Amino acid sequence: MTRDNHSILDCTIRDGGLVNNWDFSVQFVKDMYYGLSEAGVEYMEIGYKNSAKLLKGADAGPWRFLNEDFLKEVITNKTDTKLSALVDIGRVDEKDILPRDQSLLDLIRVATYIKDVDKALDLVQKFNGYGYETSINIMALSHVMENDLNEAFEEINKSPVDVVYIVDSYGSMDYKDIDYLVSKFQRLLPDKKLGVHMHNNMQLAFSNTIMGASKGVQFLDTSVYGMGRAAGNCPTELIVSHLKHPKYDVRPVLGIIEKHMIAMREKWEWGYIIPYMIAGVLNDHPRAAMALRSSDDKDKFVEFYDKLTSPEVMPTNHHSD
Ligand SMILES: C[C@H](O)CC(=O)C(=O)O
């Protein structure tokens, strides 16, 4: 199989930051960028470009509120690996975004729930006008009604957005869902590139990502050692190895894991863990499972399962965390 038309987008710093409140050292982020570059990975998401002012009281390192001057101190020698940042509707201050020719960023991705696609497309329009590549990442697709999706597609087709993402926020999809959704997106968004962003609650992030790749999805989201919110994402090292293209080399990715991530995994928890599996199977946001893992009841799986399957209504989140 030729894999020439895929781009791997590693989002360890952005999605992994949801695990450790973006407590990443500058050295780690540098090693990540230059390691991914050597590995041939096309994009690295270096954080969120949200505004601290709009996230009242939020305190987290620079990777949550990227600043161009700081970025230039970190990435002193830009390689062929492009940089992306994620923004959330209502949390990004458009005045913080420089024109692309003054920025180290190449791609701005807009995270949105289906109800806010129009707002996401307004942001895309602006970022496209500044010269950036853009994507719209439709989160929690496993909760979206077909007719809402069809209406959104009409708006997306009129927009300059380059990439439209299928996001399995709850890690509850399997290969049949990916097969179905990719075919639908390809049919109804014929001029857009597609992306997949999968979570590993049911140990299916890799399977779902390669299902997307085999159907021609261009943008494949991954994270090194699978580090990402809750159950984490599709591991970069697996995709780099699986795609078997001469431009990719897994060795530098193994180097990042060996140097930094074994110790990080001792300190912070992510990956396939039963409460996240339960959330995935039940097609729920992992927030209740994350709260459980931070409590004294972290291993009370049966009680947690019983609670989640009682007819309580779980609150809904409106951002990408
Ligand atoms: C926009 C991102 O893909 C959001 C995310 O990580 C999610 O799971 O939702």
From TrEMBL:
Key words, A-Z: Lyase, Manganese
One function term, GO molecular function aspect: 4-hydroxy-2-oxovalerate aldolase activity
EC number assigned by the record: 4.1.3.39
Domain Pyruvate carboxyltransferase, first and last residues per copy: 6-258
Superkingdom assignment: Bacteria
Enzyme superclass (EC): lyase
PANTHER family in the record: 2-ISOPROPYLMALATE SYNTHASE 1, CHLOROPLASTIC-RELATED, HOMOCITRATE SYNTHASE-RELATED
Entry protein name: 4-hydroxy-2-oxovalerate aldolase
Organism: Paenibacillus allorhizosphaerae
